[in-house]
Amino acid sequence: MNKSMSFNKDHYTVMANDIIKGKQISTLQQARFIRLMIAQIVKQDTELKTFTCRIQDFAKFFGIAPTNLYSEIDNLCTELLKCQVHIGTGNPKKPWKKINWFGCAEYDGEGGLTLRLGEQITPYVLELNKWFTQYQLKSIVGMKSVYGIRLYEILKCDENKARDTKNIFTYEIQKLREMLGCENKFKQIGQFKERVIEKAISEINDNTDLFVNHDYIKTGRKVTAVQFGLYPNRIKKYGTIKK
To answer: How buried is 113 (Cβ within 10 angstroms: 0-12 exposed, 13-18 middle, 19+ buried)?
Structure first.
């Protein structure tokens, strides 16, 4: 029996760290549907369930115009079924395990959607006891960039690794491009900094429980990595990262 989708900003999205640190290529709307679906899962669930929702409720929850969704919903359902996460295997001959996020994404033509996550995603979102990351939907509801959502998840995963009030993590540019799903976009480093990193950090600082500052690391004259400093957002320590 299908269940009605709940739209509650206090609900948690809980995912295995392997997914968080995997390669994800998605649009903003796809990313929103994925996180909303994962937030429907409760601790007692032993299997994935099918959910229904109204487009207007989804639009209201994320603060977007429903007319924009109605015009693209058929295509969005098609793309949701194609949307994948690539999880690292550690095997250089076959480095990625490719998993579809959705097993069902149907539009009834009258404003209703039926959605179900794909069975292969089950061990990464269901009955998780360790090596997972969780956050409340309210942290991403106001974000307008898919890169903001993804960078927040990645840094939230890192935050769980340390108990200090100040955590510093460094990522090579190529690794960030891979995880954020923009390996073939924003080829110029200036574009990548402005449209991906800077915008994502701004959204994280404005919407979430994290406050992030950052430095760009150069090898010679080339920017090769980004160093992120993480703080609880209630502290909001500004400035450059203390080495």
So the answer is: buried
Domains of the chain with bracketed CATH? 3-125 (1.10.10.10), 145-232 (1.10.10.10)
| H or E stretch at 24 | strand 23-24
Cβ neighbours of residue 176 closer than 8 Å, sequence gap 6 or more: 196, 197, 226
C-alpha 46 chain-centroid distance: 23
What average pLDDT does the segment 50-65 reach? 95
Three-state DSSP at 183 gives coil
**Strand 51-54 with 3-4, pairing:** parallel
What's the residue count for the chain? 243
Q: What are the structure tokens assigned to 240, written together?
A: 């450059």
**Which pLDDT tens digit goes with each residue over 63-103?**
998 887 888 899 999 999 999 999 999 899 999 999 999 99
Residue 141 has pLDDT above 50, yes or no: yes
CB atoms within 10 A of CB 235: 9
